Amino acid sequence: MIFVDTHAHLFWPDFETDREQVLRRAAEAGVGAILNLGTNAETSRICVGLADEHEQCWAAVGFHPHNIEDLAADREQGLSQLRSLMGHPKVVAIGETGLDFYRGRGTEEAQRVSLKAHFELARMSGLPIVLHSRGTGSELREALEEFGAGVKAILHCFVGDEAFGRWAVSQGHFLGLGGIFTFPTSDMADMVRSWDIDHVLLETDSPFLSPVPHRGKRNEPAFILHTARAIARALGISVEELAERTTRNACRVLGIPQADLGPGVASGD
Ligand SMILES: [Zn+2]
Questions:
Q1: How far, in Å, from the CA of 132 to the mean position of ligand 1?
Q2: Which of 148, 147, 137 is nearest to 173 (CA)?
Q3: CA of 9 to the centre of ligand 1 (A)
C-alpha cells in the first residue's frame, strides 16, 4: 500500500526541528511521495530545495492568495522567479494559488490577475495548477472556465458542493480530499460517492487541518492514513484499493513515475 500526499507545506517553521523524523514517519506509513507547495517566491525556492535533498519530496511553485502582495510588489520579478524554478525536474505543478475572498490579501481583482498569470504558467509548462479557494462562491468555476482551457486543475481541500465537484471532474480536473473529511461535521461521505474516484486525490495540507484523531495538533504526511480510512469506509472499498487508485491518479496528474515511489507498506487492517 502506497500513498501520495498531494498537498503539504513542510517548509513551515513547525517542522524546523524534526523534519527528518517527519519524513521518516511518512515513509514508514507508506507515503511514497509528498508534494510541497510554495506560497511565494522564497518558499517555492525552499520547496525545490527540499525536493533536491529528499527523494520523497516533489515541488510546486506559486503565489498563494494570502501572499498576493509579494507578487503585486514586483510582478515581473515574481513571475520570472517562478519561471526559473519551473524547469527543475521535480517541479510537477504550479501553485499553491487560487482565490480567497475571506482571508486573502489584496483586492479581488488583484487575486484574479494573479490567478490568470498562474494559469498562463501552467499552460506554458504543461503542468497542472493547484487551487485554493475560500469564500469565493462561483468565482473559482468562472476562473476555470475563463482561463483554464488546456490546463488540469487540482482543487485542493475540496469541500465544495457535489455539483461543482462533478462538473470539475467532467472537465478532467481533480479533487483533493484531506483531514476535513474525518471531522464529525463533515457531510462529504455522500458527495464522494457521486464523483468518479479516478479524479480523487489524497492530501494532508500539513501542518494544517489534522484529521481525527489528531485534530487540533500539527498535521504531518503520515496522518494521511486516517483520511484514507474514512474515505475508503464512505466508498465501501478497502483502504488498499483507495491507496492504489488515488496514488495512480496522483502519479497521472503530476507526472511522477510510479516506480519512484518506493516499496509501500502492508495495510495492517
Ligand atoms: Zn496549502
A1: 7
A2: 148
A3: 7
Phi, psi (deg, nearest 5) at residue 12: -60, 145
Euclidean distance between CA atoms 183 and 185, whole angstroms: 5
* Grid coordinates given for 226: 486516517
All three cell numbers of 186, joined, read 463533515
Structural domains present in the chain: 3-96+175-261 (3.20.20.140)
* CA distances to 111, 163, 187, 243 from 200, in Å: 26, 15, 17, 11
Q: Quote the ligand 1 centre to 39 CA distance (angstroms).
A: 8
Q: Are 71 and 78 in contact (CB under 8 A)?
A: yes
CA of 7 to the centre of ligand 1 (A): 6
What's the whole-model pTM score?
A: 0.96
CA angle centred on 63, ends 61 and 67, rounded to 5°: 145
pLDDT, tens digit, for every residue of 133-185?
A: 887 778 899 999 999 999 999 999 998 788 899 999 999 999 999 999 999 88
Helix axes 108-125, 139-147, angle to 10 degrees: 40
Q: Grid coordinates in use for 216?
A: 487540533
CA of 59 to the centre of ligand 1 (A): 12
How far away, in angstroms, is 157 Cα from ligand 1 center? 8
- The answer to whether 61 and 47 have CB atoms below 8 angstroms apart is yes
Q: What is the CA radius of gyration of the chain?
A: 17
Question: What is the CA(260)–ligand 1 centre distance, in A?
Answer: 24
pLDDT tens for 100-134 read 888 777 788 889 999 999 999 999 999 999 999 88
